[in-house]
Amino acid sequence: MLKASLLGLILFINISCASYQSKVLEARNSLADGNSDRAATLLKDMASQEGKDQVLYMLDYGLALHQLSDFEKSNQTLIEVDRLADFKDYISISSQAGSLFVNESLIPYKSERFENILINTYLALNFTMQNNFESALVECRRIDEKMRKMKLENEDLRKSFYARYLSAMIWEAEKNWDSAYIDYQNAYNIDGARSYLGKDLIRSAWRARRYDALKKWQKLYPKLSLEQIKKESIENGELVFIYQQGWIPRKYPRPENFRFPYLVPVSSGFTQAVVQVKDKRYPSTELLYDVGAEAIRTLDNDYAYLVAKKILGVIAKEVAADQIRQKNEALGNIASLVMHMADQADLRQWSTLPNTFQISKLSLPPGEHEVVIFARGPAGESKIFEGPVKIKKGQKTFLTKRTFH
Fold this sequence. Notes:
The protein is of the alpha+beta class. 57% of the residues lie in helices and 19% in strands. It is built from 14 helices and 10 strands. It is globular, with a radius of gyration of 25 Å.
C-alpha cells in the first residue's frame, strides 16, 4: 500500500511540475500568432480559479489584455494580482517545510522580485496609455515603496531606470517641470549612458528654471543646441513610442543538475523597431529596460539560496526515508528514490513578459501624422503599425507595440 502511494506521489508531482508550462503554452502561441483575443480567453478561466499557480495565470491574463489594448481590464486584473501576490508572499511555515520533501512547484507561486516590480510597471504603462497620468504616478510611487522595502529586507534589486524614466515623462506630460527634472536626474544617476537622456536633462532643467543644472548639462552634452530644444518644446508635440520586444528567457532544468532551474534566452527575429513619419525614418529604438538580463541576474543571485535549501531538502528526505527503513528497508529505499526523483526544478515564471522595453521619442509639429512602425532584425523587416497619430502642441502622445518573434 505504501509502495503504491509513493509511486502515485511521484506521478502526481511530475504532472504538477508540468502543469503551468503546458497549460500556458497554447496562450503563448496565440499571442505569438497575433491572436491576443484567444490568448485572453484561454487565460481568463485559469486566472479565476484558486490554486498554487493562480498568480501566474492572472499575470499572463493581465498582459494578454494589455496586448489587446484593453487597458482598463488589464489594470483591474493587475491590481488584483498585486494584492494577491502580497498575500501569497506570506507562505505558511508548513508549506515551506513540506516543499523540502517534494519540490517548490507544489507550493503557491511567489513572484520573483523583478516580476513584482513589473506588475506596477505595466499598471503605470496602462494608465499612461489612457492619459491617466495621476494614477500612473501612483504606480511609480508604488514601485519606489516596494524597492525601499526590498532594500530593508536586504534584497538584491537594482534601482529601476525604467520606473524613474517613465515617471519623469509622466511628470513632464503633467507640466510639473521640477518633478520631471528630478526624475530625469534620478534616471541619469542610475544609468547615465543612455544617449537620449541629454536632451531630456537640458529641456527639463530649462523648464524647471534650474539654470546652474542647465549649464552643467550643456557642458556635458555640447552637441545639443538649447535653442533648438526650446523651439521644439514650445512649437511641437512629442510622440513617445515604447517597443516591447520578444520573449523573456525561458526556465529549464539545469543539464548538470535537474533540481535547479536556469534561464535560456529565446531567439528573436526582431531586435529593434524604427518609426517612420511620411517619408522620414527616425533612429531605431533604444534600450529602456532589459527584462531578460534582470531575470537572469536575479536567478543567478538566488542560486546560493536555492542550493542551501536543496541541501536541507536532501537531509530531510533521508531522515524521512530512514524512519521508513527502520520498519521496512525496501520501502525506505523506494521512499528515498521517489522523493529524490520528485525533487525537480521549479520552472514557473511570468513567461509572457517581453525580453526588452525600448523607446523612441520624436518631436513633431501639431496635427495628424501618418505613422508607420517597422520591427527589424535578423528576420528582416516587418510592419507592426500603420495609422494616423494625432500630435498636440506641447503635449506627449504615447504609443506601445510588441513583437513576439
